[in-house]
Design goal:
heterodimer; A: mainly alpha; 3-stranded antiparallel β-sheet; 17 helices; 68% helix; globular; B: alpha+beta; Penicillin-binding protein 2a (Domain 2); Ribosomal Protein L30, Chain: A; Beta-lactamase; 4 domains; 5-stranded antiparallel β-sheet; 23 strands; elongated
Chain lengths: 425, 627
């Protein structure tokens, strides 16, 4: 720490910084293409979307300097405070929030809108890292599991209620981090099982799915009996309970899907499951974005030559569907390049996380890798029609100050934590 | 650590999966491919050039354009309005309004459709001032054809909206106009011009946001070319007037070029009927008239037996085959006896001795029947003789399509040995069997234009130019090989001299002596063709002047009794009109203008109906008897 007094950038991982610069630059280029009009003049014109984004990028530079200058220990020490403030800001939305597109997710400060859920990610990850950093924390302990679960659930529920279920779901991906830190694999196994039950119920319908699953389970049990791993005469109540749980879960999925979900939620799943395709209605976004990407071909139409981008055929193209602009103007070469950059970026974070000696830093690193990865996976998957329509941004690409700042803070806190690693003893 | 590798592996797997998916969407799947111009974001907007004008050979304007105004509707934009006033302005009633509105809405609520088509200029001027009151309606200007002279409808053709079949041609879009007959169709490409196109970039609301790529792909419209046709519109109109209330066809040709001076089919119609709001109503009326058949171009399509004018060919072939000389004589016994029992009647009194000249100008059947017999029997077999005869006849352009620039036509019939072998597979046919060919009856059929062309070949003493209708395109005289190269007949020019002399005497002192015109040496030949429907057809061919002829003409008047009654006077009136510009035989002219064969046609219609009724009655009676 003594050395850092002379140079605040000492120990910074420049590879990650380079990734950051490349991603932000590519993101802005595509926002420019998606929002430029014939009458636009200067790129600094803050009445345009690309001008505004440029301003957010400039301000994030200031933010970076502040984050890097602050003592690494500060983040660990004040993690709890950040978490409480952040949860209050989420709760406060129900009183003072602004509603945009049906979701009360915004605070308005004199014309500038901020989305606290983007910053809540930072606070929650800090809190989780801090919680797991305590000595003797054992994730195989049920109480610890419950407490960790609560840390994730509070923001997830508050955000889901806005309602912004897409951003809420993201918090549960942090289970993977807990798995890395000792959470028994059975939780992931159960989660995975439930996922399969959920999807098969939606895809085949309750009755058909139930028959399929019960038959599969029966076959599995018969196999276990055959190799003498299971004794039916003694353990039959377990089978009954398993069947009951499976049946109940599938029934409730079916019930919730048909009676609790709104039509628009149902439609989103239906599109990806390939059940109903209505290119004029709810399927419009996905259909338009796929046509737009497909029209780019191998090499794309060239920068600012994307006529479907210019024609605003894809709704929300500058935010959630920004990847379709890449597809149209830069073609397959552009899209695969962006995917490779993202994958390399995330793998780099994991490598850097692995070299951390402090548990706090390591958990933080894993957490942001998970967050970035799932944003990337869900967003791109949605744009190319592999994942249901869940409105979450593509990190550093999508237009929006709050998300840019949120991701920037996450990354640079980690870079700051990493810069300190050599001084640990 | 093992868990670390699971993470690496999962992340790489997702990346790979995405790249494969993108490769499929962007490179493999053709669903999303295509030219950028074939894209819902870019719409072409067409700029239609004005269609070319059509002038006659002397530069008189025959077809022009007139502006027309359609009231268009975009149902989505319509606001409540004073329907009563609006209907009054458009001259429609309330129910009409509601029906049209519903139809337009059904077509598309967003896209414009025609609400009321082709307003008159007067209605337009009135409506235009009030148009601001009616939101969702606007007036679109179009260009329609206009015919200052009500004539030559059959020659000019008409334009109408493209059909589904036309759409296979890439140059046309739904709703565009295309030439559908006559000159409009034949010279469509020149007249149409080239439409201009502007590519417009649109957003997802179909709202225009500017030209696509700054207009890089846009093209300018090129105005249609003006066309001069060979028709002399004054002559054409005059001929149509002569044919009033008669049926038939008249074709006049300039022998030295093959240019068609007049191409008349009667009855005809006013070309203005096929323009404007009443177009489809009028079209259906004209098209469904099965008695008058005004849409049927008799000059090009009607196949008639040529009758006596064909004797000219018999004479020429006889001379060429050297079976007769101009001095050969034949005695007519008020007819001609052939075969064992055959007898062909003739109007010559019994015992008349005719040479070639008098044979022609008195139109002696016996003379030509004997000539024909000599031609066929010159060769060892009738088959060979028939073959030679047929070749001679065909060299005058008969029995085949003319291969010209007229939209339609018929072959006619010139029999040959194969035809008769088919007719009489077991019977040894000969000259006697086919003797009617000698005088243009029998199997021979010609269209008026073929007969006019034959006349031109005689006028030229042995060759003809394919009759055609185009003279200039864009004021440049056309040079098409098949129209400027003469087609030779198989007859030596020297044999024409006595025949033309005979034709001259037809008008001087023969069957058409009443059609003589002072100061013009007309050569002609009357014809009276028997036909199964009613009275004989009145036929006349002629050319004038005798030396260096300027016009060759063929006239058919259906059921006109005999040649010199209608066809002869008409031909000489037209010749005089064309050569002098004035007509001296005023009495004849009046008789032609006013004369009508309507009674005869009505009689035919009545007979037909009666026959039908009688047939049905008989049929019924037979059926009843059978029961």
């Amino acid at each position: 720490m003594r050395k850092r007094q002379n140079n605040i950038f000492a120990g910074v991982d420049w590879v990650l910084v380079l990734f950051f610069i490349v991603l932000v630059f590519l993101g802005w280029i595509n926002i420019y293409a998606a929002s430029v009009t014939d009458t636009s003049q200067s790129v600094f014109d803050v009445t345009t979307l690309y001008g505004k984004q440029l301003r957010w990028i400039g301000l994030s530079g200031v933010l970076i300097v502040i984050i890097i200058s602050i003592d690494a220990k500060f983040y660990e020490r004040f993690a709890g405070v950040f978490y409480v403030i952040s949860m209050l800001s989420l709760a406060g939305l129900f009183l003072f929030g602004n509603t945009i597109n049906g979701a009360t997710s915004w605070y308005n400060f004199g014309g500038v809108s901020l989305q606290p859920s983007e910053f809540a990610k930072v606070a929650t990850i800090l809190a989780l890292a801090n919680f797991l950093n305590e000595p003797n924390r054992d994730l195989s302990n049920f109480k610890t599991q419950i407490r960790a679960f609560l840390i994730l659930s509070i923001p997830a529920v508050l955000i889901a209620l806005q309602p912004d279920p897409g951003s809420g779901i993201i918090y549960f991906t942090l289970f993977f981090v807990m798995y890395r830190e000792g959470l028994p694999g059975v939780y992931l196994g159960i989660g995975f099982m439930l996922m399969i039950l959920f999807l098969s119920t939606l895809y085949f319908g309750f009755i058909t799915a139930l028959i399929i699953i019960i038959s599969l389970l029966t076959l599995m049990i018969l196999y276990l009996i055959n190799i003498n791993k299971f004794q039916l005469n003694r353990e039959w109540p377990k089978v009954i309970v398993l069947f009951l749980i499976v049946g109940l879960f599938m029934f409730s999925v079916d019930y919730i899907f048909n009676n609790v979900f709104g039509q628009r939620h149902r439609d989103r799943f239906s599109i990806v499951l390939g059940k109903e395709v209505d290119p004029r209605g709810i399927g419009y976004n996905t259909n338009q974005s796929m046509i737009t990407i497909g029209s780019g071909g191998l090499t794309g139409k060239g920068f600012l030559e994307g006529d479907r981008t210019q024609g605003n055929f894809v709704p929300e193209q500058h935010t959630d569907y920004i990847f379709s602009t890449v597809g149209e103007e830069w073609g397959f070469i552009g899209t695969s390049a962006v995917i490779i950059i993202f994958i390399a970026f995330i793998l780099r974070i994991i490598r850097v996380a692995e070299r951390q000696k402090l548990k706090f830093s390591r958990v933080f690193g894993y957490s942001i890798a998970t967050i970035f990865f799932f944003h990337f996976m869900i967003n791109v998957g949605m744009v190319i029609g592999l994942v249901p329509t869940i409105g979450i941004p593509l990190p550093f690409f999508s237009y929006g100050g709050s998300s840019l700042w949120g991701f920037t803070i996450l990354l640079f806190i980690f870079i700051r934590l990493d810069a300190d690693r050599t001084y640990e003893w | 650590m093992e868990k670390k590798y699971i993470a690496y592996f999962s992340i790489l797997l997702v990346g790979l999966l995405f790249i494969i998916r993108l490769f499929y969407i962007q490179v493999l799947d053709s669903k999303y491919k295509g030219s950028p111009l074939n894209n819902s974001a870019v719409t072409p907007k067409y700029d239609y050039p004005e269609r070319g004008f059509i002038y006659d050979r002397n530069g008189v304007l025959i077809v022009a354009n007139q502006p027309s105004y359609d009231v268009m509707i975009v149902p989505r934009d319509v606001k409540p309005l004073d329907t009563l006033e609006f209907c009054k302005l458009l001259k429609i009633d309330k129910e009409d309004f509601v029906g049209k509105y519903k139809k337009a809405k059904k077509h598309s609520p967003r896209l414009p459709s025609v609400f009321v088509a082709q307003l008159s200029k007067g209605d337009y001027a009135y409506l235009q001032e009030k148009m601001y009151k009616y939101k969702g309606f606007y007036i679109q200007k179009r260009s329609l054809r206009q015919y200052p002279i009500q004539s030559a409808a059959n020659v000019l053709g008409y334009i109408s909206e493209v059909t589904t079949a036309d759409l296979n041609n890439k140059n046309y879009q739904q709703g565009e106009l295309i030439g559908k007959n006559g000159v409009e169709k034949e010279y469509e490409e020149a007249l149409r011009g080239v439409k201009g196109v502007k590519f417009i970039q649109k957003d997802r609301f179909n709202k225009v946001i500017g030209p696509y790529k700054g207009g890089e792909y846009d093209t300018l419209a090129i105005v249609g070319k003006d066309v001069n046709i060979t028709i002399d519109i004054k002559l054409q109109k005059y001929a149509e007037d002569l044919m009033a209330n008669k049926r038939g066809g008249i074709v006049a040709i300039e022998p030295s070029t093959g240019e068609i001076l007049a191409l008349v089919s009667a009855p005809t119609y006013d070309p203005n009927l096929l323009v404007g709001r009443e177009r489809s109503k009028n079209y259906n009326k004209l098209d469904s008239d099965s008695h008058e058949k005004p849409m049927f171009d008799r000059a090009l399509l009607a196949e008639y037996p040529p009758g006596s004018p064909f004797k000219i060919l018999t004479a020429l072939i006889g001379l060429q085959e050297e079976v007769i000389t101009p001095e050969s004589r034949v005695t007519c016994y008020h007819g001609y006896r052939y075969g064992r029992r055959g007898f062909m009647k003739c109007h010559c009194s019994s015992g008349t001795v005719n040479d070639l000249n008098s044979g022609i100008h008195q139109s002696c059947n016996a003379y030509f029947a004997s000539t024909y017999k000599k031609i066929i029997e010159k060769y060892p077999t009738s088959s060979e003789g028939m073959k030679r005869w047929s070749e001679h006849v065909k060299s005058f352009g008969l029995g085949d399509f003319l291969h010209n620039d007229l939209f339609t036509g018929r072959r006619g019939v010139v029999p040959d040995e194969k035809l008769y072998d088919k007719y009489y597979p077991t019977f040894n046919w000969g000259a006697s069997t086919t003797i009617s060919n000698a005088i243009g009856q029998g199997e021979i059929l010609t269209t008026p234009i073929q007969l006019a062309n034959m006349t031109a070949a005689v006028a030229n003493r042995g060759y003809y130019f394919t009759p055609h209708i185009i003279k200039k395109i864009d004021n440049k005289p056309i040079q098409i090989d098949k129209f400027i190269n003469p087609k030779k007949t198989t007859i030596d020019p020297k044999y024409f001299i006595p025949v033309v002399e005979g034709m001259y005497d037809v008008v001087e002192k023969g069957t058409a002596r009443y059609s003589k015109v002072d100061g013009i040496e007309i050569c002609g030949k009357t014809g009276t063709a028997e036909n199964p429907h009613g009275q004989d057809h009145s036929i006349f061919i002629a050319f004038a002047p005798k030396d260096n002829p300027k016009i060759a003409i063929a006239v058919f008047v259906e059921n006109g009794y005999w040649g010199s009654r209608w066809a002869g006077p008409m031909a000489s009136l037209m010749i005089e009109k064309y050569l002098k510009g004035e007509v001296s035989l005023k009495a004849y002219e009046k008789k032609m203008f006013e004369g009508s064969l309507r009674e005869e046609y009505d009689k035919q219609l009545l007979t037909e109906q009666l026959e039908k009724e009688i047939k049905e009655k008989l049929k019924k009676e037979l059926e009843e008897k059978a029961e």
